[in-house]
Amino acid sequence: MNEYRIPASPGESELTEKRSRFLGHVRMVESEEEAKAFIAEMKRKYYDARHNCWCYAVRSGAERYSDDGEPQGSAGIPMLEVLRRRGVTNAVCVVTRYFGGVLLGTGGLLRAYTQSTADALDAAGVAVVRAWTEAEARCSYAQAERMKTEAAALGAVTEDVVYGADVTLKLLIPQEKTEAVKARLFDASAGSVRLAVTGGSFRAVPV
Questions:
Q1: Residue 101: predicted pLDDT
Q2: Is 8 within 8 Å of 126 (Cβ atoms)?
Q3: What is the structure's pLDDT at 73?
Q4: Beta bridge mates, 114
Q5: Which of 41, 44, 73, 157 shows the greatest Cβ crowding within 10 Å of its Cβ?
Q6: How confident is the model over 76-128, as pLDDT tens digits?
Q7: With 0-12 CB in 10 A as exposed, 13-18 as middle and 19+ as buried, what is 82?
Q8: HEC states along the chain?
Q9: CA dihedral angle for residue 44, residue 49, residue 53, residue 58, rounded to 10 degrees
């Protein structure tokens, strides 16, 4: 199944640990060249910082990282591990540290760089890139929330809700689960809600 996860939008974070400031930035990239360009941009922007640590992962399989002068293993690898654990690719993260005069030790640095990366990724959100079925389900106002919940249980995303005499849910459904969602909505509504397929697309959808 051709599916992967990427940052849904640019994400930023700020963390202060014993007077050191950690500024995290996450971006979606399509290639190593784009990742390197973003890293260079952050280094220019934060030229006066003590460290600009970074990591990236792209779909070609390339993974790179740098501690940028921090103790070995205290920054780049922990940052990359955040992307790996979240299953995110086509992503670059730069964490800038302004030294506050207090040594954090390797353990403290590891925690700070991990947290900064995780916070920046949380701010960015995650999108799933895959083949989606576009569909609509008409239901009563009383049924709407349950139908959304039933569809979400099978991985469907409610892209829009149109309110009129009744409610129209505009759904994006993982392509291979279209029939399962159709059956689930039909069963959960005692046959009153029918799914109508309106199209299909391959794109990134925030989840």
A1: 84
A2: yes
A3: 94
A4: none
A5: 157
A6: 999 999 999 999 999 999 999 999 888 898 999 999 999 999 999 999 999 99
A7: buried
A8: CCCEEEECCCEEEEEEECCEEEEEEEEECCCHHHHHHHHHHHHHHCCCCCEEEEEEECCCCCEEEECCCCCCCCCHHHHHHHHHHHCECCEEEEEEEECCCCCCHHHHHHHHHHHHHHHHHHHHCEEEEEEEEEEEEEECHHHHHHHHHHHHCCCCEEEEEEECCCEEEEEEEEHHHHHHHHHHHHHHCCCCCCEEEEEEEEEEEEC
A9: -30
> What contacts 99, CB < 8 A, 6 or more positions away?
20, 50, 51
Residue with tokens 């459904």: 173
Write down the pLDDT at residue 102.
85
Residue 174: name the closest of 153, 148, 147, 149 by CA: 153
The full set of domains in the chain, from first to last, is 4-124 (3.30.230.30), 129-206 (3.30.70.240)
Q: What is the pTM of this model?
A: 0.86
Asked if residue 56 has pLDDT above 80, the reply is yes
